[in-house]
Design brief:
This protein has one domain: L-arginine/glycine Amidinotransferase, Chain A, CATH 3.75.10.10. It is built from six helices and 17 strands. It has helices at 59-75, 119-129, 166-175, 213-222, 231-235, 255-263; strands at residues 2-7, 13-19, 32-35, 79-82, 99-102, 105-108, 135-136, 148-150, 155-159, 179-183, 196-200, 203-206, 227-228, 242-243, 247-251, 267-271, 288-289. Strand 14 (242-243) and strand 15 (247-251) form a beta hairpin. It is globular and about 50 Å long. The relative contact order is 0.18.
């Protein structure tokens, strides 16, 4: 029986949990991500409960935190591609909202908020310029990996605040994968990716209270061994995390969630996303996975 620890932001040791001989050995897989530098990041409108245009924003701090996130991915052995940010699109940094890619098939996005609508076409052009030939732009509103989460077997699809329920069947037709609809009920957790993330294979972490009672039952049936997050985990956007099958990149405040995933054999990797969180985003929001 051994404890799992790593260094926190001040280089102090943090004990995150205890593993036992029965704890699975987690194996990372190399991922490819698409990210957008937050060169024009600010909060000049409010389209979710996290956004307050009256509060001060530091674009330079957002750039520093984003760069640390990108460097973390590359240090872990992952490949990061970049898309050029565009003036007037401060939320373009949240690249996860602009495309869902499975087996090289791309389903683009259609934003609900007019302030973000132009982002979709910039990403469409990036896909076409970078060798993707199967690119479909949706007829129904969907905010891509914000509400579409690929488990390797199912596409979990959120609705309730942003993505049109009819976009779920459209995703199934375009991507050719089974889709499971989940209803979100708490406006703070307006996208699926701030209420649930995939750790590995058939294991997820999620915050039950973000979902309708029926969706909670679906999640319990599909993932009986899931990591159950607390309100505190959710409130720091701890579930807006990224796992490569071993390493779990998550906000530095999510210490309870980190301890829980460490007990399952994962290695938490903390990042500071406090400035980006002012727009309702975290590590996953900044990270579109390119599954070629």
């Amino acid at each position: 029986m051994t404890s799992v620890s790593l260094l926190g932001p001040g280089d102090e040791p943090i004990v995150l949990g205890v593993t036992t001989p029965a704890t699975p050995v987690r194996v990372p897989t190399t991922r490819r991500y698409l990210m957008c530098p937050p060169e024009y990041f600010t909060v000049e409108y409010a389209i979710n409960p996290w956004m307050d245009p009256t509060q001060p924003i530091s674009t330079s701090l957002a750039v520093q935190q984003w760069t640390d996130l990108k460097d973390t991915y590359e240090r872990l052995g992952h490949k990061v591609d970049l898309i050029e940010p565009q003036p007037g699109l401060p939320d373009m940094v949240f690249s996860a909202n602009s495309g869902t890619v499975i087996d090289g098939q791309v389903l683009g996005s259609r934003f609900r908020a007019e302030q973000r609508a132009a982002e979709a076409d910039h990403f469409r052009r990036w896909f076409l310029a970078n060798g993707y030939t199967n690119v479909v732009m949706p007829e129904r509103t969907n905010e891509a990996e914000g509400d579409f989460t690929w488990t390797g077997k199912y596409l979990l699809a959120g609705t309730g605040f942003r993505t049109d329920p009819l976009a779920h069947s459209e995703a199934q037709e375009v991507l050719g994968v089974p889709v499971i609809s989940l209803q979100l009920v708490d406006p703070r957790y307006y996208h699926l990716d701030v209420a649930l993330f995939v750790l590995a294979d058939d294991l997820v972490a999620y915050y039950p209270e973000a979902f309708s009672p029926g969706s909670q039952r679906v999640l319990r049936r599909l993932f009986p061994d899931a990591v159950i997050a607390t309100a505190e985990d959710a409130e720091c956007l701890g579930l807006n995390a990224v796992s490569d099958g071993r390493h779990v990149v998550l906000p530095v405040e999510a210490t309870h969630l980190a301890e829980e995933v460490a007990k399952r054999g994962f290695e938490p990797v903390f990042v500071d996303i406090s400035e980006l969180r002012k727009s309702g985003g975290g590590p996953k929001c900044c990270t579109m996975e390119l599954r070629d």
